[in-house]
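Illustration: Pleckstrin-like plant domain-containing protein.
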Amino acid sequence: MVADVVIGVNRDISAWPGRHLLEGGEERRYFGLKTAEQRVIEFECRGQREYEMWTQGVARLLAIVGEKARPAVS
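Result:
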């Protein structure tokens, strides 16, 4: 069994309780990585730009891996 293999990005993670109280808390964004074991590992970003960089980057890497995993069509 392979542990913690990332299979997707969850962009619909709610703000962590109380984080809005921190300086810049209203700017923070959250996302999760879905694993093959049906877990979601949550991450916090300092703002929208960082959030987009991470979510788009991980989604792109997953797409690349998905393309390489498909058998070649002749």
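Reading the tokens back as a structure: The radius of gyration is 15 Å.
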